[in-house]
# Entry
Amino acid sequence: MGSFLFRNKLQIWNRIETVPATVVEFNASMTLTSAPLNTALVITEINAGREAHSRLSSMGILPGKRIKIMRRDSRGPLLLDVSGSRVAVGRGLSEKVIVTVE
# Structure
């Protein structure tokens, strides 16, 4: 009986479990900070006040625009590709930008 339990424990410990990959549904809205890297995104809306909206628009970040996140570290700004230009956007501003996967 003891070896049987021991054998079952080994079988459980040696079980290979697959972890599902992150799946992003198309047409699912998300903030820019939670969007996947190196994926074509479309800005659907900007939930910001006048100042933040004007700052984002001066960087070319407008509703309908296609962008791509080039780099996102655990801290610091996001590096975006906006119309062939690289733009750094802080986390606070990027939380206000709503995107969908193209």
